[in-house]
Amino acid sequence: MALDVTDGVIAGDPRPDGAVIWTRLAPSTPGPVGVLWSVATDAAFTTIVAGGLATASPDDDYAVHVLVDGLAPDAWYFYRFEAE
Fold it and tell me: CB-based contacts of 24: which residues, under 8 Å, 6+ apart?
């Protein structure tokens, strides 16, 4: 299945210990898509501090929203979504 990311990756609703990260997919075939999400302290993702599996479904227009918490305040983080 070909998979496009229609909105890139986006972060918002910042708080001292986290934020919401999201993306929206455009799969070429219908049905739910498993999406692995990761948050790291470095761009190479060698130190992952949060992560999990979410599902992009047609019911939500293939949007994935993840509330990430437990992060250190006033720190830089890198995040990504992986599917397929």
Answer: 5, 6, 7, 56, 61, 62, 63, 64
Q: Using CA atoms, how far apart are residues 61 and 22, in angstroms rounded to an integer? A: 12
Q: What is the pLDDT of residues 36-52, one digit of tens each?
A: 999 999 999 999 999 99
Predicted model pTM: 0.85
